[in-house]
Amino acid sequence: MPDRSRSQLPDEALLEASGNGDRQAFGELVRRHQSWAWGVAYRFIGSRDEAEDIVQAAFIKLLVASGRYRRTARFKTFFHVIISRLCLDHAKREKPVQADDYPELADSSPGQEEALMTSQNAARVRRALDSLPPRPRMAVVLRYYEGLGYDEMAVVLETSRKGVERLLSRGREALREKLGSR
Amino acid sequence: MLCRNCHTRLSAYLDGELSGRELWDMKRHLDGCASCRAHLAELEALDAPLASPGTPEMPGDLEYRIMARASREYFDARDTSRFRAIARRWLGPTATASALAIGLLLGGLLGWNSHGGPISEQSTLRTENAVFASLSAAPGGSIEAAVLAGFDGGGRL
C-alpha cells in the first residue's frame, strides 16, 4: 500500500493494518500520535527518560492489543487508556521520580528575568503536580492538557463521571493549596 | 445548598458539567456566598500556572526508537512465527509422502522374490514374523533392520 493512501486512512484502519504486520501503517500512527502521547507521559511523570519509556511501551502495547480493538471505540480514547494505565502502573511501582530540573538563568537582565520567572513558575507547577496522588494527577493532566470531557475521562480512568468529578476536585484543591496566593 | 456541598461540586461547575436543577442551585448559592465565590476564583486562577510552558521538547529521534523497538518485539517475531507455520505446513505432507514410499517398498519386498513371482504363503508368514519381530525389538527396531529381516526370513528377491 503506497504511503499517500496510508496518510489518508483513519487511525482505526491504520491500527488494524499495523496488527496485521503493516509496518508503514504503524509508522503513520506513530507520526500522528507520538507528540501528544509524549505530552501526557511527561506531564504526569516529570522525567524525560521515564516518559520516553512509557511512550515506547504504549505503542508496543497498542500493536499487541490491535487484535482486541473494536471500532466502536475511538482510537484516541483507546490509546489514552493504554498510556494512562502505564503511567499509573509506573507510579505504583516507582518511588517519586526526581523531576527534571528546570534551568536557572544566572543573567538578571530584564528579558532574562522574565524567562527566569517562567522557569521558576514551571518548576513550582512541576513540584505541585508531583505532590498529587497518581489518579488525581492523571485527572488533572487529562483535563488541563488534553481537554478531555468527563465522559471520556471516565472511560480512560475506568471510573464513573462522579468518580472523575471527585478526582478532579481532589486534584484542584491540592493544587490550590500549593499554587494559590495564600 | 450548603457551602460544603458547593465546594464538592465546584469542579464540575468550573468544567461546565452541571445542568438543570444542579446548575441553578449552584448559581443561586454563589450569588449569595462571597466565600464560595472566592473559592471558585482560586480554582479558576489555576488555569494560568498550569498552562504555562513547562514541557520540554519531545526527543527528535523518538519515532525512530519506537519503530526499532516495534520491529524487534513485534514485527520480526511475527514474521518468524509465520515462516515457521508455513514450513510446518509444507514439511508435513512431505514427511507423510516419505513414510508412504517406505511402506510401499517394504510391502513389495515382503510380497515378491527376485526369481519370478510371489513367494509361498508359508515363506511370506515367516518373513512377516521376522519383520514384525525386528520392528518391535526396542530400542533397536528400524525399517532397515526390518528389510534385512525380510531377506533373512526367506523373503528372497
Automatic annotation (TrEMBL), chain A:
Pfam families hit by this protein: Sigma70_r2, Sigma70_r4_2
CDD domains in UniProt: Sigma70_r4
Gene3D superfamilies registered for this protein in UniProt: 1.10.1740.10, Winged helix-like DNA-binding domain superfamily/Winged helix DNA-binding domain
Keywords carried by this UniProt record: DNA-binding, Sigma factor, Transcription, Transcription regulation
Domain of life: Bacteria
Protein name in UniProt: ECF RNA polymerase sigma factor SigE
Residues in RNA polymerase sigma-70 region domain copies: 29-95
Name of the gene: sigE
GO process annotations (BP): DNA-templated transcription initiation
InterPro entries membership: RNA_pol_sigma-70-like, RNA_pol_sigma-70_dom, RNA_pol_sigma70_r2, RNA_pol_sigma70_r4_t2, RNA_pol_sigma_r2, RNA_pol_sigma_r3/r4-like, WH-like_DNA-bd_sf
Domain RNA polymerase sigma factor 70 region 4 type span(s) in chain numbering: 124-175
Protein family membership: Belongs to the sigma-70 factor family. ECF subfamily.
PANTHER family: RNA POLYMERASE ECF-TYPE SIGMA FACTO, RNA POLYMERASE SIGMA FACTOR HI_1459-RELATED
GO MF annotations, alphabetized: DNA binding; sigma factor activity
From TrEMBL, chain B:
InterPro entries: Anti_sigma_zinc_sf, Znf_put
Pfam families assigned: zf-HC2
Domain of life, source organism: Bacteria
Assigned keywords, A-Z: Membrane, Transmembrane, Transmembrane helix
Keyword Iron: no
Domain Putative zinc-finger, residue spans: 3-37
Annotated TM spans: 90-110
The protein's name: Anti-sigma-W factor RsiW
Species lineage: Bacteria, Pseudomonadati, Thermodesulfobacteriota, Desulfovibrionia, Desulfovibrionales
Gene from which the chain derives: rsiW
